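Subject: for your reference before the review

Hello V.,

The reviewers asked for a structural picture of the protein, and I figured it would be easier to keep everything in one thread rather than splitting it across files. Below is the amino acid sequence we used in the manuscript, unchanged from the supplementary table.
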Amino acid sequence: MTWPGGGGLGFLTAGLLAALLGAAPSTASAQEQQAPTVTVAKPITRDIVEDDQFVGRFEAVDEVAVRARVAGYLQEVHFRDGAIVKAGDLLFTIDQRPYQAAYDAAKSQVDSSTSLLDFSRMQLERAEQLAKSGNLSVSTLDDRRREFLAAQAQNQGAQASLRTASLDLEFTEIRAPLAGRIGRRLISQGNLIQPDSTLLTTIVATDPIDFYFDIDERSYFAYARDARTRGGSMQEGGGGIDVVVHLADRNEKAFNGKLDFAENRMDQGTGTMRVRARFDNKDGVLQPGMFGRINVPGSLPHPGVLLPDEAVGADQNRRVVYVVDDAGKVSMKPVRTGPRIDGYRVIREGLSGDETVVVNGLMRVRPGVTVKPEMTTLPPKATETEEPSQ
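And here is what came back from the structure prediction:
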């Protein structure tokens, strides 16, 4: 069979071979195109102090339930719900008219008894002068002395009744016993108030504020040892150990405080001890009842290796990181992680700090593959993110 143009088969075969050879890339070039790009960095190495972390709750340093000391009908409320009040601020007024009348009556009794006492004193002095000259019998002198002592006792009783009436009148004005934030009023005007039983409102101190949390025996021994080196004790002053508390809202800054108290015994049921830290709260961000995570120094300063949480992967029940050598080959290293410091995860075991670690792109790597590393430098402090589940 003759192909048009002659020699057509040989020409076609040669053309196909040339096209195939020209289109086929080299093996090295294909491998280079297939190598994934990942971000790598050197771990941060510096002296660190590992913190122990506990969960606790804020409580007011002082809290009071405001009640009346006298009975009566509520006449006026002098505060706005939720306002900040100062010690001595007027909060409620009970109808004062019955107590003003009682005060006026007691005062009149004092005036009357004082007049009688002055008259009895003059009579006694006159009788004593007459008795000295022999112009008055001893029995009459005794009668004048008895009358004076009776008038004196009557005056003292009237004075006591006046003080009671004055206190009752004063108690009709219910004032704030401490400075802090007041709650809502729990009774409306016109209602009858019973003394010592009707709850009117509550006040909680806001600055400073306490944080309570529970620690185990191991932690207690460590903190107590630190407190003794400072010349104190956990129970009295908490050793003055500096602590930091974080709120649920990561946008809020951390708050610095000090341990200042621990209970005088371990709880037999839980094997824990309740500890207290105190924090300044001038801006009023911290509120009683809030939860928080407190970090307490749990070690002496020592060299540490830090990595972002994104650089730590999981292999079944262990934590791993991926290390890249000079040729771009990836290997996997098991590590033991610790707490977070400055936004980084402490690597307690598995790294020396000289390795080049994959910090972004873990999903594109596996042991033995070759990657295209892009070197970056980790900042001294990372941006805080939510704590990953362990």
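For the response letter, the relevant points are probably these. The chain has four domains: 33-46+303-376, 53-61+209-297, 66-95+173-204, 96-171. Helices lie at 8-23, 27-34, 97-133, 138-171, 217-229.

Happy to draft the paragraph if you're swamped.

O.
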